[in-house]
């Protein structure tokens, strides 16, 4: 157990790690920002030994806030109230921790800085070498070049990183399928895709049986169970029909088309970053829920053929810590820097 607790405060999940134990709690911040303090208090309370909190966030982008500056300010205020007497520091993209007052003043450096904390910790995978971190999470994908243990992104804000393709706003769970492609093919005919939030990439995974069913979870596009039967129905709704309109084998092919479209987007982004970097990574580090898809993309494009090693955070840390890798990294960085 450690006294240093890392917190990653997102728009859809709250994640915590002390470097030994981790917790991830679904929390749609945009729906209930007034409940954030209580949710954080409950989460922090699961780590009674914690005396130092190292925080990062992406939740400031939630549209319950008028601006990102307001989002950073409100999240920090909730955290201060929830933390009680515990000390708080916030990670910033300059590679250091800020006090709460500094984080409020220089919010641009603190907003959506979780990727930088992870990249800073991951850089140790090959001291003095070139490391490429690819983190495929539930909502977004990060592609971060690291040289001699220091992240070397072309962009630091989300806006800049969207331009540099170091941030791809696509994930393995929450991404709407209509954002991936505009039409699919069934039995030689092309069908347009509804521009509605009827189904997500999690439904694709359920249909393709690459993730386990979670019938008790209602965190889906239609609020119905996250099981395969309901996933087929949600997928069919993307074509404005019902699941019995086609055979299951056809719906599986439709799901595969959506997955290939996402793989193409991620692969193109990785190649863009590599071409600009002009370095062959000696080590690749993969993280996040979608790590299996990343391996497929890398293998199909032969992107890592000149690299010495491909490191899996799922295998190194376990699946739960890999999915909360930014919080894990913060806990370790906080302890190393003796905050």
Automatic annotation (TrEMBL):
Top-level taxon: Bacteria
InterPro entries: Hydantoinase_A, MfnF
Record-linked Gene3D superfamilies: 3.30.420.40, conserved archaeal protein q6m145
MF terms in GO: hydrolase activity
Residue intervals of the Hydantoinase A/oxoprolinase domain: 51-290
Protein name: Hydantoinase/oxoprolinase
Organism encoding this protein: Thalassoglobus neptunius
Lineage, uppermost ranks: Bacteria, Pseudomonadati, Planctomycetota, Planctomycetia, Planctomycetales
